[in-house]
Write the structure tokens for this entry.
Amino acid sequence: MFTQIGGKPESDFSDPLGLLSDCHQRIRYFLNVLVSVCAQAAEKQLTPDQRTVLEKALWYFREAGPRHTEDEEKSLFPVLRAKNIPRVRRALEKIEKLEVDHRQAEADHDDVDAIGRRWLSDGALSQEDFRQMRILLANLTRLYKRHLVMEEAEIFALADGVLSRNEKDLVGREMAARRGILRR
Ligand SMILES: [Fe+2]
Ligand SMILES: [Fe+2]
């Protein structure tokens, strides 16, 4: 799903690095949604509006978030690694660290999803689930704050400088195919 957050026009598959940055905006947006629903609803019953935004945010991290991780790990990072030039070799350790972050974020999102589904089915969170949700969201907020900036400022910027037009097109085509979109 490529919903537009804010007024800035979306990038398309001919600009895969722009698209990856757009995805970061959605990650920030939907994480903020979860944090604010958690703060507003706490252990009280969810209002209909809170239920709607919670469902959307959980859906985003369950369905769209993993595709963004695949865009990076299966499309962008392999093309970068294959360059084998000094600028890229110096960044390899950072790329490995980003992949470690992905595993941590996936584990935290799985737990957020399980608690969020209980929240939707029961209408309210138990004290223990509420406490755990706050810890998970604080961890994810801290992780993404560092992770997204490192990708944008270092890895996407590096990719923009070292990848050829053809290599960027390959990344874009793979991202489109991952979403069932044919691109000529
Ligand atoms: Fe990432
Ligand atoms: Fe990313």
Q: What stands out?
A: The CA atoms of residues 52 and 135 lie 23 Å apart. DSSP finds six helices and no strands in the chain. The helical segments are 16-41, 48-81, 86-89, 92-122, 127-162, 165-178. The radius of gyration is 18 Å.
